[in-house]
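Because discrete structure vocabularies remain unfamiliar, we turn briefly to a single example record, giving the amino acid sequence and backbone structure tokens:
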Amino acid sequence: MARSSYQFTSESVSEGHPDKVCDRISDEIVDLVFREAKKVGMDPAKVRIACETLATTNRLVIAGEVRVPETLLKKDKAGNVLTDASGAPLVNPSKFKSAARKAIRAIGYEQSGFHWKTAKIEVLLHGQSADIAQGVDESGNKDVGAGDQGIMFGYASRETPELLPAPIYYAHKILEDLTIARKANVGPAGKLGPDAKSQVTIRYENGHPVGVTQIVLSTQHLDETLTSADVRKIVEPIIRAALPDGWISDETVWHVNPTGKFVVGGPDGDAGLTGRKIIVDTYGGAAPHGGGAFSGKDPTKVDRSAAYAARYLAKNVVAAGLAERATIQLSYAIGVAKPLSIYVDLHGTGKVDEARLEKALAEVMDLTPRGIRTHLDLNKPIYAKTSAYGHFGRKPGRDGSFSWEKTDLVKALKAAVA
């Protein structure tokens, strides 16, 4: 039987964290390719990107496999596409470098050790493997297969209006609100830097979140004279406003910049790499994770698209009143279109049989890679904004972003299990 009274902790990191800088740049590359494809009339379903970014002191390396429109390829003076020794087209690095610099500037890095204008950027993107392409490309009436094998999880809980676990939701909100204040130069918040981490421990009673017992906030500051106490005076009002009324008490323990000064931050202080914050990206440890990262991947990669689909299904199950909590697992094999399995766990809160619900999920949504991309409209430049503050618990945008957060499947689900 599940525990009803306990404490649970989740962490988040800001968009200026070294790993998140890399996630942002990798997703900006994804968006760039989709935008360029649209400009030249290239079928967005043909786009392929698997982009990784490495960042360190004033240095970026962007590597991976891509299939891009001609506008992103290297050409000679006569306009002919240049190729390598194997005949694969060469990528023109200029637009990729420009996208990376714009991302670094938007995050706010203008430091001697990491500056959007002076950082050295190396682009090592190359054509997609033909062996992978034959398994994941559409051929006639054949459904496109999954881009890789793997397991993906989706989760939803009634703990917050967004149906996201409270610890990760509020860990994200603290940093997002601090970032908004920093960029708007609101009072002393303008003295803070882009790099920050938060951690929130929430107390549960009878299975419901009721208060915060521990708050951890480490944030970069540009004024070297600031002490931990000074930084707390800056961030405490913002943190209190981010949390529900009454959740902070006299017993709440604060840890603000517990090591003292935090002046050197971002990739200058610690190397960053795409895909190292997968628990931050999802449910803060409150639910399983399949292991695959999201950022830098086009939606044929089920690491990304099927994880979005699993969240979409779990959220709609809870929104439909079929359970208070839901975990959904999907599994795939490379080159195979249909999921190998669908698993549902309602954690003892379900109002329907889990085996029946598993069948219903396959009835209300086409869970092939192409079906997911079509249903959630994923073949578009919507990914850069997912790279910080979580891929889940966000509001769907008019541009089609966060479509997996919609609850438009409720009616169909209810009918399918009736």
